[in-house]
Specification:
This protein has five helices and 15 strands. Helix 1 packs antiparallel against helix 2 and helix 3 packs antiparallel against helix 4. A five-stranded antiparallel sheet has the order 8-7-9-14-15. Strands 1, 2, 4 and 5 form a four-stranded antiparallel sheet that branches. It has one domain: Creatinase/methionine aminopeptidase superfamily (Creatine Amidinohydrolase), CATH 3.90.230. With 277 residues, it is of the alpha+beta class.
Length: 277
């Protein structure tokens, strides 16, 4: 441990998180393949839960929080930024849906290790400005991850996310919700905001695992929580996008635990050492 409860993992523990991360990656791939006009968000939830349980893992989100979250995924459509509860909502041509998913894999002692990731998926054809919003949000996530290095600071990640978004136009950066530490719990210190100054915040160390998750809007970044006590929506009804990956810092670099390729392609494109095995 170091600093306010942040966890430092051994290589063996990071490997267990990689197992959880691959379950999440497979679940998100299955859900992406199932997205189409006419499908309900509840049907997408069943796809994810079936896959996670078939791998001997446990959904991270189901029963989490107060009130307990009632599903395996968060399915947030259009102006819903995060924490959308899946159910009977039908997806229609032109929608976008953020799918956030977590899974727990237990080690030989019974200790659970978490993986957490999110994608935003277009339902059929969407307006060009929405496609661009998705591109900017996903790239901001990768720029944030690529800014992480042993000896750096959390603010380096935050600044890289913000700098990329600001460089692409007048997008809104949601400030009320952040990335986070992750490991034996889904949410651990430190918080990882999507804005900030480099060289600030907790120090980044080998064995630290973080989830980076920019939430970006086409309009006002302010949000409110809906009557269901979970779904976060934009106050002006503007469309939002959300992408997330869990990564760990290793002796050799950054290892994206929830990416099938460990993040190798994106990190090499950005000139960052790949830290997987």
């Amino acid at each position: 441990m170091f600093g306010s409860g942040s966890e430092i993992k051994s290589p063996e523990q990071v490997q267990r998180m990689r197992e959880a991360g691959l379950v999440v990656a497979d679940a998100l791939a299955a859900v992406r393949a199932a997205v189409r006009p006419g499908v309900t968000t509840g049907e997408l939830d069943r796809v994810a839960e079936d896959l996670i349980r078939s791998r001997g893992a446990t959904p991270s989100f189901l029963g989490y929080g107060d009130p307990p979250f009632p599903a395996t995924i968060c399915a947030s459509v259009n102006d819903a930024v995060v924490h959308g509860i899946p159910g009977g909502q039908l997806l229609a041509e032109g929608d976008v849906v953020s799918i956030d998913c977590g899974a727990i894999v237990a080690d030989e002692t019974g200790q659970g290790w978490h993986g957490d990731a999110a994608i935003t998926v277009a339902v059929g054809e969407v307006p060009a400005e929405v496609t661009e919003l998705m591109r900017v949000t996903e790239e901001a996530m990768w720029r944030g991850i690529a800014a992480a290095r042993v000896g750096g600071r959390v603010g380096d990640i935050s600044h890289a996310v913000e700098h990329h978004v600001r460089s692409q136009g007048g997008y809104g950066i949601v400030e009320d919700y952040t990335g986070h530490g992750i490991g034996t719990e889904m949410h651990l210190p430190p918080d990882v905001p999507n804005y900030g100054r480099p060289g600030r915040g907790p120090r980044l160390r080998r064995g630290l695992a973080l989830a980076v998750e920019p939430m970006i809007t086409l309009g006002d970044p302010r949000t409110r929580v809906a009557a269901d006590e979970w779904t976060v929506v934009t106050v002006d009804g503007s469309v939002a996008a959300h992408f997330e990956h869990t990564f760990a810092l290793t002796d050799s670099g950054v290892w994206v635990l929830t990416a099938h390729d460990g993040g190798r392609a994106a990190l090499e494109r950005l000139g960052v050492p790949y830290g997987g095995d």
